[in-house]
């Protein structure tokens, strides 16, 4: 038996480890067929085997380096042509945590290519089909570092800031349709990205680290509750509301057409 036909196909980028691997498992459990994207073929194959035999779904692997123009184009073409896709999770991401002066241009560019360019082009690939059917779900994984910067995260935070504003923009663009667009802002989660980025998890305050399962389950609970922006680890809803309110009011306050009094010389 192949997945629940009504659920269609869910695409998970960065499904070979961490949050993406758990998203893939949770979506398989919900009855989606899956398309999994990442570079590590062996990992994708073993995840696909496990999920197919456990949940009776169909899994297709797209082995691709989303930082490579050619591979990205292939994935874009595949997703554009696949009308069975009902959900895309733009989860693949990479980080180098260091000052800009000690981070190579190649590593800075890799963050831009994977975290921004691939996320945008893959969204472009599915949105027209979602619009045609007036249904579909897009989940973009940003980060708390999308609205906060550390001395070692200028580029990474910049890329995640893009994801935050891009996702808000898509939400405005698709308002009034049946297309769901969810922004997820995880905080520190126990995944390989920390080793990849040059800061081992062991160097962090252990009390701040969430498990991948808790993070993904919170994100999907936020989706089920119809949230536009989900902050898996923020307990105080008032903080989220105040932030949303402040950013909207600051924008509205900027629409005055005149310099603020403090900038006017007497
Ligand atoms: N862990 C954390 O603390 C937080 C993570 N996030 C975000 O969560 C998302 C998932 O990361 P996480 O699970 O933590 O980390 P992982 O390192 O475990 O997962 C990253 C995934 O992205 C894939 N990926 C990375 N680079 C490429 C590439 N060039 N081409 C294709 N796939 C790529 C990796 O696959 P492969 O190597 O096989 O290509 C892997 O599957 C990222 O967007 C990250 O920024 C946000 C906030 C906090
Ligand atoms: C700093 C990181 O690399 C982490 N993925 C995060 O977004 O907090």
What does this 3D model show about the protein?
One of its GO terms (molecular function) is oxidoreductase activity. This is NADP-dependent 3-hydroxy acid dehydrogenase YdfG. The protein has helices spanning 18-29, 41-55, 69-81, 105-133, 154-173, 193-197, 212-224, 237-253; strands at residues 9-13, 33-38, 59-63, 85-90, 136-141, 179-184, 229-230. The protein has 266 residues and is of the alpha/beta class. It has one domain (9-263): 3-Layer(aba) Sandwich (Rossmann fold). Strands 3-2-1-4-5-6-7 form a seven-stranded parallel sheet, with helices on both faces.
Short description:
This protein is an alpha/beta fold. The protein is 47% helix and 14% strand.
Layout: helices, strands, pairs:
Blueprint: E1 9-13, H1 18-29, E2 33-38, H2 41-55, E3 59-63, H3 69-81, E4 85-90, H4 105-133, E5 136-141, H5 154-173, E6 179-184, H6 193-197, H7 212-224, E7 229-230, H8 237-253
Parallel strand pairs: 1-2, 1-4, 2-3, 4-5, 5-6, 6-7
Bound molecules: NADPH dihydro-nicotinamide-adenine-dinucleotide phosphate and 2-amino-3-ketobutyric acid (AKB).
Enzyme class: oxidoreductase
Catalytic activity: L-allo-threonine + NADP(+) = aminoacetone + CO2 + NADPH; 3-hydroxypropanoate + NADP(+) = 3-oxopropanoate + NADPH + H(+)
InterPro entries: NAD(P)-bd_dom_sf, Sc_DH/Rdtase_CS, SDR_fam
């Amino acid at each position: 038996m192949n997945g629940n036909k009504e659920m269609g196909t869910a695409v998970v980028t960065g499904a070979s480890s961490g949050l993406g691997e758990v998203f893939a498992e949770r979506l398989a459990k919900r009855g989606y067929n899956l398309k999994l994207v990442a570079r590590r073929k062996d990992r994708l194959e073993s995840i696909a085997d496990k999920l197919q035999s456990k949940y009776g779904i169909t899994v297709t692997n797209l082995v691709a380096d989303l930082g490579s123009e050619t591979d990205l184009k292939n994935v874009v073409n595949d997703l554009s042509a696949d009308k069975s896709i009902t959900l895309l999770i733009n989860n693949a991401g990479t980080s180098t945590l260091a000052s800009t002066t000690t981070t190579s241009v190649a590593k800075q560019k890799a963050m831009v290519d994977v975290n921004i360019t691939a996320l945008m082009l893959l969204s472009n690939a599915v949105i027209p089909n979602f619009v045609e059917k007036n249904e579909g779900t897009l989940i973009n994984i940003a980060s708390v570092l999308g609205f906060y910067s550390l001395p070692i995260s200028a580029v990474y935070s910049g890329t995640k800031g893009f994801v935050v504003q891009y996702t808000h923009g898509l939400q405005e663009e698709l308002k009034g349709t049946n297309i769901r667009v969810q922004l997820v802002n995880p905080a520190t989660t126990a995944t390989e990205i920390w080793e990849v980025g040059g800061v081992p998890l062991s160097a962090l305050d252990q009390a701040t680290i969430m498990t991948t399962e808790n993070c993904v389950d919170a994100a999907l609970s936020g989706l089920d509750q119809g949230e536009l922006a989900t902050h898996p680890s923020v307990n105080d809803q008032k903080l989220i509301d105040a932030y949303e309110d402040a950013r909207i009011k600051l924008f509205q306050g900027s629409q005055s057409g005149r310099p603020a009094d403090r900038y006017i010389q007497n």
